[in-house]
């Protein structure tokens, strides 16, 4: 699935004179589209806050961490489905918005803060994808140092 979305052509359609753009090597590109490993998914789960409020299904990450050996096969199946198809199983991307009052006895909409309750599967997949991106970003983006302070003459 990802292979079709990220096939590179040599006609990038961008020209900035003699400026050259960094690109990923073939080996790194292959790693970017490889299936997510169980270790990557487990690392993503452990990076998520465990005791925060439960998601729409009532479970927080402490539950997932404590039951990892029992539910890891199911989680990996959902993650592989996403990787293969590029979409979530029905119901996995459901989310709710809760309005939490900022003050006692709120009477105006501005006195609430909206909080999105997103399911754990979305968070896990997002975390795995962001970890993949984090590894390659320095390879394609130049770090520009801030301008040095200019002293007045």
Describe it.
The chain has six helices and two strands. It has a two-stranded antiparallel sheet with strand order 1-2. It is extended and about 60 Å long. The protein has one domain. With about 150 residues, it is mainly alpha-helical.
Secondary-structure blueprint:
Layout: H1 2-5, H2 26-33, H3 38-47, H4 61-66, H5 68-85, E1 95-101, E2 112-118, H6 120-140
Antiparallel strand pairs: 1-2
Helix pairs in contact: 3-6
Give descriptors for this structure:
extended, about 150 residues, mainly alpha, 6 helices, about 10% strand, 2 strands
Q: How helical, in percent, are the residues?
A: 40-55%
Outline type:
extended
Largest sheet: 2 strands, antiparallel
- Tell me the fraction of residues in β-strands, as a range: 5-15%
Could you spell the SSE succession in H and E letters? HHHHHEEH
What structural class results from the helix and strand content? mainly alpha
Number of helices: 6
The low-pLDDT segments are none
Oligomer: single chain
Total domain units: 1
Strand adjacency order, main sheet: 1-2
Radius of gyration: 21 Å
């Amino acid at each position: 699935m990802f292979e079709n979305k990220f096939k590179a052509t040599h006609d990038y359609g961008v020209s900035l004179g003699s400026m050259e753009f960094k690109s990923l090597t073939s080996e790194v590109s292959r790693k970017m589209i490889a299936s997510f490993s169980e270790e990557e998914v487990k690392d993503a789960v452990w990076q998520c806050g465990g005791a925060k409020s439960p998601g729409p299904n009532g479970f927080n990450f402490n539950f997932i961490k404590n039951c990892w050996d029992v539910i890891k096969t199911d989680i990996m199946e959902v993650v592989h489905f996403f990787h293969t198809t590029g979409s979530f199983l029905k119901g996995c991307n459901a989310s709710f918005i809760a309005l939490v009052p900022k003050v006692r006895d709120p009477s105006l909409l501005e006195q609430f803060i909206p909080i999105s309750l997103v399911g754990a599967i979305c968070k896990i997949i997002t975390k795995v994808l962001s970890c993949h991106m984090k590894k390659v970003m320095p390879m394609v983006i130049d770090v520009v140092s801030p301008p040095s302070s200019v002293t007045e003459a």
